[in-house]
Design brief:
Low-confidence stretches of chain A: none
Radius of gyration of chain A: 40 Å
Mean pLDDT of chain A: 93
Number of helices of chain A: 19
Helix content of chain B: 40-55%
Mean pLDDT of chain B: 90
Strand order of the largest sheet of chain B: 1-5-6-10-9-8-7
Order of helices and strands of chain B: HHHHHHHEEHHEEHEEHEEEHEHHH
Shape of chain A: elongated
Low-confidence stretches of chain B: none
Radius of gyration of chain B: 38 Å
Largest interface: A-B, 90 and 80 residues
Shape of chain B: elongated
Oligomer: heterodimer
Strand content of chain A: 25-35%
Number of helices of chain B: 15
Number of strands of chain A: 30
Distance between the termini of chain A: 88 Å
Distance between the termini of chain B: 67 Å
Strand content of chain B: 15-25%
Chain lengths: ~650, ~350
């Protein structure tokens, strides 16, 4: 909100420089964002006010705050008296829950014309366009005291009543901004006998506005329920100076003075009609008395505050002490509880005067249960050349469907874009975006990301932590890539199930290890669509089951005392024979003394013939009782040859 | 006198048995040894001096020191020792570089790039903050990113229709029941923690949060926060202040105290509420572009837990008090490293990431 230094000075003496004033306000919670020096020693302050302080949305309100901080007294703007209440147009509040009170002041002999420069200059300095002398008077009072008022051309109001009522479904109103608005029964309106003439607390109607020909004015000054105004303003996408104040909580005590002040400013332009002030009352929020205990102040702030000081500070804000309890002023809807008063005391006394104390340690702090495992995985991956990346949780429906067609996505009801229409059901698209950002800049890289995927399971949201690996690397092959996945799994106390080839079209080749883990090379068609190189690799690893399994336990056994013998076996196999079969054949039942077994080399070659491959099986034999004799090793080797042969292999 | 003649003279001297020297005192010994020291400056034959048997020093040991009577051992030993050191220093300085046989290496060539890949700067900041608060006695907790309006707003004293609900533009989710949204802050985990466990409680919550903000240099629809909560008997605003000052000192000051200030602010779930500012780390408070000439940088929001929040979780607000704080990790990372654009965090650009290893 913008305020003029010169205008503030009408209500409170300011001895400090504008920079000092800005600092003092900021430290009291009314943050001054910028100060713009104006001609003649004046200055424009732009404040960033919190939504709990509607009372500061005016010059008088801010002056009151300054008076409280600097222990000065506040001077209120002058008003002349008003005519007595009487009949005229009757005001009837049909929605008392939404309209706490309503003053209607009739002004006669109006002469609509330009606004005096003193007034229009101030409004323009605040960025408010000058309209005419009557509308400007209401705006001037809004900036001065904070209370919104509205001027109708009284001759355009039909029938003898002003009604404050809920709109009927389908009623329309053309507001001052020339937009026709269709109303709902949740919109509070001001209506004449026939139609709505204003959206209560938000904006007046075009057809009842002040025009150059206006002779009679009906000036509205009311209090509307914050929630009603807020909802209506949102529904109609309207945000006005009036709605801004009403929806934060206007001052019901300011309604009559605001009407008086407008009438005073309009002296010579329009004259209050005899008996032209009408008043009607709805329901206002009830305000209770607040007990303030000195020991509670100390318990919250960590320091006692002198009773006299407390009293001076609270009274400066307009609070009154009655029968030992405090009554908050009508302009402070935020002060209702003891803690509210303690905050005011802390703020005005100064947060900087509260001591700082580091509380003593109490008990043993626990990291997240999975933090150590998570950080071991991260450290290992970085050591293996994967940089850590972060991704957005959003994805488009199509790109997720490509990679996880069976998972049910959670849609965002108000997405920012179609590309972010759902929460990702798989991290694959996120990783491809990250890799592509790099390949488009000529950078081939390895990345990992730890994040979540989100799915709908039996109509309930489910979040699952996943680790995603991605690489663009022409040097990678399937075994090397699986090695990256295995290295992660090796940190945990799990034995993953046998790998199965995936049938999904997006990986080629690709494999799954149970439900939560898949990896492979991105299929050429997908790479083409994503404009990624053909050597793009992905892996997604569900972390929940790994964390639950815990770290791989250390089981100590003494290093072997007797030497091992190694033997290699070179066999030709049909492509249908898998390593899993070979391993099974050599371990069930166990071959005597066989302690280690690995596929040392696998190769395919035209000379071997189509559909065949050569496998070099490396084995190690060892006993923990003695050094094995040659014939013992040979007997085991013969068993291996026999088993591989019966698997369909041919020894080379 | 040539070097060789001098060396021969010294050798003869060294081979003269101690008893034949007939020295009467240390000055006479010093005079004798001065000749050795003088010859050393021109000496080139290392072996003639330092060879274990034939060398001058070996000879001196053999013929002078060994037969010397007990009272001479110490002064003579010390002098021979310093002569040996002088000889070793002389020949070490004069020694030519000896290259062993075999292939040579260009030692100025760098090794292959096997440095570990980097951790993400935002995760580094998360880890560091977690570590600081662990040391201050705070446990770490987490909670769901998909929340209900109850935990994200209501239980934090933000009722329906409250302006604070709109200030944090919320992303709502299409989930049967219609209650779900993406948490707009990590604060709902405060409620989960207090529901799970009675006081005392000290916990921090790092996590991902969401706002309906179009991506730009200072906005992202998802970003990260760390929430902190301490509840106990006797915790006051002074404890909040001391804790956060210590955090700033550890995180930004490297252990050095930095000027901070608490500014009154407004959050529904804390009262009194405050923003913590730190004296601008770029200009030391003088005023620059980063701090918008104010000399201060806004770091985080905090305050004493509002008693209404205790009401939602069944803590007795008369008995317990506490404080809470929340900070944006991206913001802290941007401040720490002077990063200009928040989008860089989410691009995956390795040229960006690799700067943080």
């Amino acid at each position: 909100m913008k305020v003029l230094l010169s205008w503030l000075r009408e209500f409170v003496p300011i001895a400090a420089s504008v920079a000092e004033l800005a600092r003092a306000l900021t430290l009291a919670g009314q943050a001054v964002d910028t100060v713009t020096e104006l001609a003649g020693g004046d200055a424009l302050l732009d404040l960033d006010l919190t939504s709990n302080r509607p009372d500061c949305l005016s010059h008088v309100g801010l002056a009151r705050e300054i008076a409280a901080i600097t222990a000065q007294s506040l001077r209120l703007p002058a008003s002349t008296g008003l005519p007595r209440f009487s009949a005229g147009k009757r005001v009837r509040i049909e929605a008392p829950e939404a309209c706490g009170l309503y003053y209607a002041l009739q002004l006669e002999d109006a002469h609509v014309g330009p606004t005096p420069t003193a007034v229009s200059a101030r409004l323009e300095a605040l960025g408010q366009r000058s309209i005419n002398n009557i509308a400007d008077a209401t705006n001037y009072v809004l900036w001065e005291s904070g209370h919104p008022t509205h001027a109708f051309d009284a001759d355009t109001l039909r029938g003898g009543h002003i009604l404050i009522r809920w709109a009927r479904a389908g009623e329309t109103l053309v507001t001052l901004d020339e937009i026709e608005r269709t109303l709902t029964p949740e919109d509070l309106v001001i209506a004449d006998a026939e139609r709505p003439v204003a959206l209560a607390g938000i904006m007046g109607g075009r057809d009842t506005a002040i025009t150059p020909g206006t002779r009679k004015v009906l000036l509205e000054s009311a209090w509307f329920d914050p929630l009603t105004v807020r909802r209506s303003a949102r529904r109609h996408g309207l945000h006005t100076e009036a709605s801004h104040r009403f929806e934060r909580g206007a001052d019901p005590g300011a309604a009559l003075p605001a009407a008086q002040r407008v009438a005073t400013l309009l002296h010579g332009v329009a004259r209050p009609a005899v008996g032209g002030l009408i008043f009607s009352e709805g329901k206002l929020p009830e305000r209770g008395a607040i007990a303030l205990r000195p020991e509670r102040i100390e318990k919250i702030l960590g320091m006692p505050l002198d009773a006299g000081l407390c009293r001076r500070l609270l009274e400066a804000l307009g609070c009154r002490l009655e029968h030992g309890a405090w009554l908050a002023p009508s302009w402070r809807p935020d002060l209702n509880r003891e803690i509210d008063l303690i905050e005011e005391l802390a703020r005005l006394h100064g947060y900087d005067r509260i001591p700082a104390r580091l509380p003593p340690l109490a008990g043993m702090a626990q990291p997240l249960p999975e933090a150590r495992l998570r950080d071991r995985v991260r450290a290992q991956l970085r050591g293996r050349g994967f940089a850590e990346a972060m991704a957005l949780s959003f994805a488009s429906e199509g790109e997720c469907r490509d990679f996880a067609p069976q998972r049910q996505p959670i849609r965002v009801l108000n997405p920012l874009s179609e590309e972010a229409a759902i929460l990702r059901t798989t991290s694959a698209p996120s990783m491809l975006h990250l890799l592509r950002y790099n390949t488009h800049r000529g950078l081939e890289t390895r990345l990992y990301e730890m994040g979540k995927i989100y799915t709908l399971e039996a109509d309930q949201p489910a979040e699952q932590a996943v680790l995603t690996l991605g690489a663009c690397d022409p040097g990678l092959d399937f075994r090397a890539w699986r090695g990256e996945v295995d290295a992660v799994l090796a940190l945990f106390n799990i034995t993953p199930p046998e790998a199965e080839g995936t049938r999904e079209e997006h990986l080629s080749p690709g494999a799954r290890l149970g439900d939560g883990i898949w990896f492979g090379r991105v299929a050429p068609s997908v790479c083409e669509r994503w404009k990624l190189p053909p050597h793009t690799w992905l892996a997604e690893i569900a972390l929940g089951p790994l964390y639950a399994a815990g770290p791989r336990p250390v089981v100590y056994s003494p290093p072997p005392r007797f030497p091992a013998s190694e033997r290699d076996f070179s066999f030709l196999f049909d492509d249908m024979v898998t390593w899993a079969q070979v391993r099974q054949a050599l371990t069930e039942p166990p071959v005597p003394y066989l302690v280690a077994l690995s596929p040392a080399e696998v190769f395919r070659n035209a000379s071997l013939g189509e559909g065949r491959y050569s496998l070099l099986v490396r084995t190690r034999f060892q006993s923990d009782e003695r050094t094995l004799r040659d014939e013992e090793v040979q007997a085991s080797a013969d068993a291996i040859i026999a088993r591989l042969t019966s698997l369909g292999g041919t020894q080379r | 006198m040539s070097d060789a003649t001098e060396l021969a003279a010294l050798a003869a001297q060294a081979a003269t048995p101690w008893t034949s020297l007939g020295l009467r005192g240390e000055p006479e010994l010093d005079a004798l040894l001065r000749r050795f020291h003088a010859a050393l400056s021109a000496a080139r034959d290392r072996d003639a001096w330092l060879s274990r048997k034939r060398g001058l020093l070996g000879q001196l040991n053999e013929h002078w020191l060994k037969p010397a009577p007990a009272e001479w051992k110490r002064p003579l030993g010390a002098r021979l020792n310093s002569l040996r050191q002088a000889a070793e220093a002389h020949f070490a300085a004069a020694a030519p570089i000896r290259r062993p046989a075999g292939p040579s290496a260009d030692v100025t060539l760098p090794g292959p790039d096997v440095a570990a890949a980097p951790a993400h700067p935002v995760m580094q900041v998360r880890d560091e903050i977690t570590d600081i608060f662990l040391r201050l006695g705070y446990s770490v907790a987490d909670g769901p990113e998909i929340e209900t309006a109850y935990y994200n707003f209501e239980a934090l004293n933000i009722p329906a229709g409250h302006p604070a609900r709109e200030e944090q533009d919320t992303l709502y989710l299409d989930i049967p029941g219609g209650k779900h949204l993406l948490r707009t802050h990590t604060s709902p985990v405060q409620i989960h923690c207090m529901e799970r466990q009675p006081p005392p409680l000290r916990v921090i919550v790092p996590g991902k949060v969401y706002r309906r903000d179009a991506p730009d240099a200072s906005h992202s629809p998802n970003f990260h926060q760390v929430e902190g909560l301490a509840v106990d008997t006797g915790l006051t605003f002074a404890d909040l202040k001391g804790t956060l000052e210590r955090f700033v000192q550890e995180f930004f000051g490297g252990g050095r105290a930095l000027a901070t200030r608490l500014r009154p602010s407004y959050f529904q779930f804390t009262e009194p509420s405050a923003e913590l500012d730190v004296a601008c780390i770029f200009c030391d408070g003088a005023g620059c572009r980063t701090c918008k000439q104010t000399g201060w940088i806004e770091l985080l929001g905090c305050g004493m837990v509002d008693p209404a929040v205790f009401g939602f979780v069944g803590y007795d607000p008369e008995r317990y008090s506490g404080f809470a704080f929340g900070m944006g990790l991206e913001r802290l990372a941007m401040l720490r490293y002077g990063i200009d654009d928040m989008q860089r965090f989410y691009s995956g650009d390795v040229r960006f990431l690799e700067q943080f290893r």
